[in-house]
Amino acid sequence: MYLILLGAPGAGKGTQAKLIADDLGVAHVSSGDLFRENIKNNTPLGLEAKGYMNRGELVPDATVISMIMSHLGTDACRRGALLDGFPRTIAQAEALDAALYSGFDSGIQKVIYIKVETEELLNRLSGRWICPTCGSSYHEVKNPPKVAGLCDVESTALYQREDDKRSTAENRLQVYFNQTMPLIEFYAAQNLLVEINGQQEVEDVKVDIMEVLTPLAGERSKPLVA
Ligand code: AP5
């Protein structure tokens, strides 16, 4: 099963993906997390991506597509993937379609578009704190950890992302409006898009998403022959 979480920076894609991927039995594949892992490990891919990310620009399509396609071919994704942050351009979406229909046996089952207003997005990005160990994401006001500054799961000190500074975050939103929003129309035209109100409590957003996706997971687990 291949699913996409679509939405602006700060819409809650990562938060929701971490909550639902296990329940759906698929791997959570975040292009941003894969880049940050490469940056941490000083790989050539990380060095290439770092400048773009710090400026709030998109990493070139060819680089992202090749990274995601190799990841989808790994054992971790054998039961499918919940894609978070990919695709982000029409060229990436077309490359994904081509790969899914040729190499990975089925297409995309659903695209969940998490919609949040711009001012709220900026507030969320500037208040976000992340666990360096498990990647859990918190907000200092709206979704705080139980103990200030520490991850609920790992108890490690939380950090703020370089690209969450207000001017970079504003640039990321502009890039989203120009280059990623056309995907809403792209997937709506294929009858794959479901819009979810992302401006509710985290748990309520999850309930709305699972209402759409649980039947799909059920379908996939039914035996082909009774
Ligand atoms: P990436 O890491 O993908 O960042 P993003 O898409 O900008 O998304 P974010 O992680 O900022 O937001 P999110 O929607 O996951 O929100 P979150 O759940 O954390 O990409 C970073 C960079 O990598 C890009 O700028 C680009 O350079 C590069 N890149 C990545 N993919 C690429 C691609 N495909 N092509 C080219 N370049 C690519 O939540 C945000 C905050 O809100 C948190 O504090 C959270 O606690 C809080 N929150 C979440 N839900 C709620 C809620 N319901 N109510 C209140 N607060 C909430």
Explained architecture:
- It is a single chain.
- The protein has 226 residues and is of the alpha/beta class.
- It has helices spanning 13-24, 31-40, 44-55, 61-72, 90-102, 118-126, 166-180, 182-188, 202-221, and strands at 2-6, 27-30, 81-84, 108-115, 128-130, 137-139, 193-197.
- Strands 2-3-1-4-7 form a five-stranded parallel sheet, sandwiched between helices. Strands 5-6 form a two-stranded antiparallel ribbon.
- Strand 5 (128-130) and strand 6 (137-139) form a beta hairpin.
- Helix 2 (31-40) packs across helix 3, helix 4 (61-72) packs parallel to helix 5 and helix 6 packs across helix 7 (166-180).
- The two termini are 21 Å apart.
- BIS(adenosine)-5'-pentaphosphate is lined by residues 7, 9-15, 31-32, 35, 52-53, 56-59, 64, 85-86, 88, 92, 124-125, 127-128, 137-139, 142-143, 163, 172, 198, 202, 205.
Summarize the structure.
The chain is of the alpha/beta class and 226 residues long.
What would the average pLDDT be, to the nearest integer? Answer: 92
Give the percentage of residues in beta strands.
5-15%
Number of distinct helices: 9
Structural class by helix and strand composition: alpha/beta
Stretches with pLDDT under 50, minimum 5 residues = 221-226
Sheet with most strands: 5 strands, parallel
Tally of extended strands? Answer: 7
Broad CATH class = Alpha Beta
When the domains are counted, the total is 1
Report the C-alpha radius of gyration, rounded: 17 Å
Overall outline: globular
Q: From N to C, what is the helix and strand string?
A: EHEHHHEHEHEEHHEH
Question: Termini separation (Å)?
Answer: 21 Å
Helix content: 40-55%
CATH superfamily caption: P-loop containing nucleotide triphosphate hydrolases
Strand order of the largest sheet: 2-3-1-4-7
